[in-house]
Amino acid sequence: MRIIASLDRRRVIMTCGVILVALLCGQVMQSFADNPLNRREKARSLPKDPAAAILSPPPVMQGRARAAEVVQIEAAAKPDTLCIPQLGLKRAAGGMIDLSFNGCKARQVVLRHGEVEITAATDASGMLERRIPAFSQKARVSVSFDGETIQSKIEIPDAAEFQHVAIVWNGKQTLRMHAFEFGAKRNQFGHVWAGAPKTPKRATRGNGGFLTRLGDGSGTSAEIYTFPAGQSRTKGVVRLMVEADVTPSNCGQQIDALALQTGPLGGMDATEVALKMPQCDAVGRVVRLQNLFQDMRLAGR
Question: Which entry of 47, 112, 113, 118 is 20 to 30 Å from 35 by CA?
Answer without folding.
Answer: 47
